[in-house]
Amino acid sequence: MANDVEFTAIYRWLAILSLESLVEWDVLVFLHRHAHILLLPTSEIPKLAGYDTDTTAKALHRLQQMGLEDGRKCPRRVLPFGL
Fold first, then answer.
1. What does the alpha-carbon distance between residue 47 and residue 30 come to, in Å, rounded to a whole number?
2. DSSP string of 8-45?
3. By the number of CB atoms within 10 A of the CB, which of 33, 44, 67, 76 ranks highest?
4. Residue 67 DSSP symbol
């Protein structure tokens, strides 16, 4: 298990990226890793990322405000399926 020093370092790195929580980091990494291979409506992201809908929606909204996530320019957020 991680100790307090490790958690302090983790949150310092998050602050450098202007991220406020590990949820924002997890959602950002999830979108980065899976954007090119999934056909996925927004409502499925929380289940796959492992968070509840409200928490994930807040993280997505904040990432969009920061310019780190573009909403894929699709109203239903359907990600393209990679062949």
1. 12
2. HHHHHHHHHTT--SHHHHHHHHHHHHHTTT----GGGH
3. 44
4. T
Q: What angle do CA 72, 83, 69 make, to 5 degrees?
A: 20
- pLDDT tens for each residue of the chain, 83 residues long: 567 778 888 888 888 888 988 899 998 888 888 766 556 677 778 888 889 989 988 998 898 888 888 765 444 444 444 43
Helix, strand, coil distribution of the chain in percent, nearest 5? 60, 0, 40
Residues 48/79, Cβ–Cβ less than 8 Å: no
Q: Are 44 and 4 in contact (CB under 8 A)?
A: no
